[in-house]
Amino acid sequence: MRTPLRAIEGYSTIIGTDYPDRLDDGTRELLRRVRAAAHRMSQLIDDLLTLSQVSRKPLERRQVDLSRLARAICQ
Hints:
mainly alpha, 3 helices, 0% strand, elongated
């Protein structure tokens, strides 16, 4: 999943840096969006990998004071 994503990000960066005089403002904005979306997708892949590791661990059951937790979050 990462290899095609790196290619998209890399090629869009190359286009933006090698051909800046041929790109109008709209095209530069589109390339910026492509790179931003590729970066976000990379973060999502990392998050999915982290989630897959967490789900492999056995559950730890314990009592939790939800009122105290909610107060801590609000503070």
